[in-house]
C-alpha cells in the first residue's frame, strides 16, 4: 500500500496497486510511525517505487495506439503472434523496433487488466469517452497519477489557480521520496520525463489545455465512465477523476 502525507501532515492518503484509495486523519503523525503502520498486507512491505509509478514513463494516453493494442488483445495472441504483430507487421507504425516494443509493452500493461469488454468498448467508443477510459486505466496502473491528481491538481483547483507549474511535479515527487521505497533512486531526467507524461495525460483527457501551457480546464465525465468504475472496482479512481474536474 502506497502512502503520502498531505500538507501539514493532517491527512494520510493510501493508494494500493489497483488504484484504490482511502483516507485516514492522523494529525502530525511522525513519518516513521506512518511507515511502520501502513504496510502492504500482501507482502508486509510498503509499496515500492516500481509499483507506485507503474509504467508512467512509457508515454501519454496514446488513443490510436491503445485501440490497436486493444484489437490485438481481443484476438488472444500467443507470444509469437504478439511479436509478429508488433515487430514484423509494425501495427503501431513506429520507426524503430525498440520504440514499438516499448510502446506496446506500456499499453498492454495499462489496458490488459481491464478485460475484454473494456477493450471492445474502447474500439467503438467516441474519442472523448475512450480518452476518459484510458485515463482510468492509466490511473489504476500508475498510482502516482492518481496521487498527483488527488493532491496537486486538487489543490490548484481549490486555490483557483489558472494553471499548474512545471515545479509542481518536482515538489510533488520530493514530498513522496520519504515514503515510497526507491523513489529517490530515479534520475532527474527520468523524473522529468514522467512529469511531462503526466501533464500530457492530463491534457489528453481534458483536465489541462495543453501539456505546455498547463492551464486548468473543466471536464465533464461521461456517464459510462462511472459504469466502468463500478464494474471494474475502480470507484476510488473515479472519485478522484470527479473531484478534480
Shape assignment: globular
Tell me, rounded to a whole number, the average pLDDT: 85
- Sheet of most strands: 3 strands, antiparallel
CATH topology of the domain at 57-130: fold of a uncharacterized protein from magnetospirillum magneticum
DSSP helix fraction? 55-70%
Instruction: Please report the distance between the alpha carbons of the first and last residues.
Output: 26 Å
Contiguous helical run count: 12
At the fourth level of CATH, the homologous superfamily of the domain at 57-130 is: uncharacterized protein from magnetospirillum magneticum domain
What is the CATH class of the domain at 57-130? Mainly Alpha
Please state the structural category.
mainly alpha
Q: State the CATH architecture of the domain at 57-130.
A: Orthogonal Bundle
- Number of beta strands: 3
Strand content: 5-15%
Q: Please trace the helix and strand order, writing H or E for each element.
A: EEEHHHHHHHHHHHH
**Which regions are unreliable across 5 or more consecutive residues at pLDDT < 50?**
1-44
How would you write the strand order of the largest sheet? Answer: 1-2-3
Gyration radius, to the nearest Å? Answer: 18 Å
